[in-house]
Design brief:
Helix content: 25-40%
Largest sheet: 3 strands, parallel
Subcellular location: Membrane
Number of strands: 6
CATH class of the largest domain: Alpha Beta
Shape: elongated
Number of domains: 2
Keywords: Membrane, Receptor, Transmembrane, Transmembrane helix
Strand content: 5-15%
Radius of gyration: 21 Å
GO cellular component, one term: membrane
InterPro entries: ANF_lig-bd_rcpt (IPR001828), Peripla_BP_I (IPR028082)
Strand order of the largest sheet: 1-2-3
CATH architecture of the largest domain: 3-Layer(aba) Sandwich
Pfam families: ANF_receptor
Order of helices and strands: HEHEEHEHEHEH
CATH topology of the largest domain: Rossmann fold
Length: 176
């Protein structure tokens, strides 16, 4: 009995899915590449979806799971981070928050807020305040906006969606 073994070669290519980059992807496919590993953004999601669907090629990414508008069509995308949007909604509804401040620092945070807002159209939340931190090293002005009296509630409910653990540490250092 003869057993044939093949060695898997992993090559790293710094290739972003923004025009005019799809041709290098096609060249790699002609050399036997069978999956793409990479990071995508809100701006490149359509291109990634198009390439993976057209060539039926898996795309493995640590990026946020696809938005609800495309989740059914993203059969070739594998997201290494679980989507915790439904869990956030469950917490907001369980705690009965009617007025929520959503603070974030990235396009993924904005995408997650949009997904939450779309999924919560049942009226369980009456009002959202949305603030994007432009610089996590200096958030005082943005926090003052969120802390202004809103005459809606004595209790303030915050969802803080930051892009990294380092960003969380910087924000916590400024609020403590």
């Amino acid at each position: 009995m003869i057993i044939e073994t093949k060695q898997l070669e992993l090559q790293y290519y710094k290739c972003f899915f923004d025009p005019p980059y799809p041709p290098p992807v096609c060249r790699q496919m002609s050399h036997g590449v069978f999956a793409i590993l990479g990071q995508k953004s809100v701006l490149s999601a359509d291109i990634v979806h198009s390439v993976t669907s057209t060539f039926q090629m898996p795309y493995i990414t640590p990026s946020l799971t696809p938005s609800s508008t495309r989740s059914a069509d993203s059969s070739y995308e594998l997201h290494m981070r679980p989507d915790h949007t439904r869990a956030l909604i469950d917490v907001i509804e369980y705690l009965g928050w009617k007025y929520v401040h959503f603070l974030y620092d990235s396009d993924e945070g904005l995408q997650r807020f949009q997904h939450i807002h779309k999924m919560m159209r049942n009226g369980s939340v009456q009002w959202f305040s949305v603030v994007r931190f432009t610089d996590v090293n200096d958030i005082h002005d943005e926090l003052r906006l969120a802390d202004m009296p809103d005459n809606k509630s004595f209790t303030k409910a915050f969802v803080v969606d930051l892009s990294s653990e380092e960003a969380y540490k910087k924000v916590l250092k400024q609020v403590s």
